[in-house]
Amino acid sequence: LRPEWLESAGRGGRHQLLERLCNASSKRLPDFKPRELAMLLWAIGQLHSVGSLAPIGSHHGNRVVQATAEAATDAAARAAQAGLLGSQELCNVLWAVAKLSGRSTPPAANTAAFQGQRDSSSSSRNGSTQAGGLNGDRHNAGPVLAAVVEQNWSGRPAPLIARPQRAWFASILAPLHAQLPSLQPVGLATVLLSLGQLGVRPHRYWLRRVLSSTQHFLPMCGPGELSNIVLALAYMGFVPDWAWTARWCRVAALKLPAFRSQELANSVWALGRLRRPLPGPLLTRFLVASAAQSDAFAASETAQILIGVAKMGYRPDQSWLLLFTAAFYRQLPCMSTATIASVCASFAALGQRMPPILLKRLLHHLEPKLPNMSPRSLATIMHSFGMLAHRPPAPWIKSYLAATSRKMHSFLAGDLASCLWGVAILGIRPGSSWMQNFVQRATFTLLQQQQQQQ
User: Could you say which of 19, 164, 254, 309 would form a disulfide bridge with 168 (CB–CB 3.0 to 4.6 Å)?
Assistant: First the structure.
């Protein structure tokens, strides 16, 4: 099922072939050995992640693939519960499910929504069953699974299958915990990143134990594994202790020349989100490396590194800021509105005013999109403009006020405050109708908060 081989069959022939293969696999699924079951699931996940499958609903054969993937996912859980899957198979199953349920791309994000971005997991998709890795009690799992939450990421690919329920993850994590000692860095990075992408929150006890046991083999990790581990922790919202962070930084400093643009961006974004800033000298080296590769950065990678640096509370030198301001100008049309709002907030946090040519392009790009922007993005944009003293022209302000007035009923308390502060600081007069909607929504959110506190 390698994509390059399938391409030779042509699109129509490829879909027909996949349909026939999946039909045959579904009929023989009970006969699949555990390793073959994991390979089947991995292959479908790989095809989905590289876009070799037709969109759902556009081709009958894709629904056959979908049904096969769902059946294989359920069968993998039963095999895991029976203790039939090794560490490599468990890694492959988790990786495949992360890809198939459409949460396989990391974000360039702010406090609201996350924009899809390339990750390093394609180089880390296979675990290893060789010895070496985590040490510890194979049988005393303790609390493993704390929660499964919804990752509200915009820009993610359409899922092929629904995300499994909590019981499915519990059936996978229990045997996986017993096999942690057999995982090598690639396998561990795959497991953690897949769990983070799927919105799985392992228990803090489990994560602390995992990270404590990883310190001795961090030097064995390549740039992809190093960036994927901290990216996974950021997804999970788990803040590692300073000792582990310092160890990660020492290893990353040695491997920095081998970091690619996506690994640089993912690492800086993740550590910024975790409020674990890199030491000044190392961050400077990261920024120098990112400047050298700035032409290779994708739009979402540019956004990620700007957001990460801002969250670390670090102000780069002016030449670096100008370089990435220029990159933002070039790549702005390729970014989602949520990502653009995040970058604007980063400029505000860095105290970096936008050049007039960039501001003009930004306003022109956003104006037709204002009615479809989320409340958080609308509030973030206005708050950022207020901090930077960027007052848009009157027609743009009119479009903005109309869009926010229509969506005022969906604003949260923090969004209301940010929006009103930006409007007030820029001397904008929104009008009585807008203010009436604002007061009604603010009153409702305050009453709601009081009821929750009681």
Answer: 164
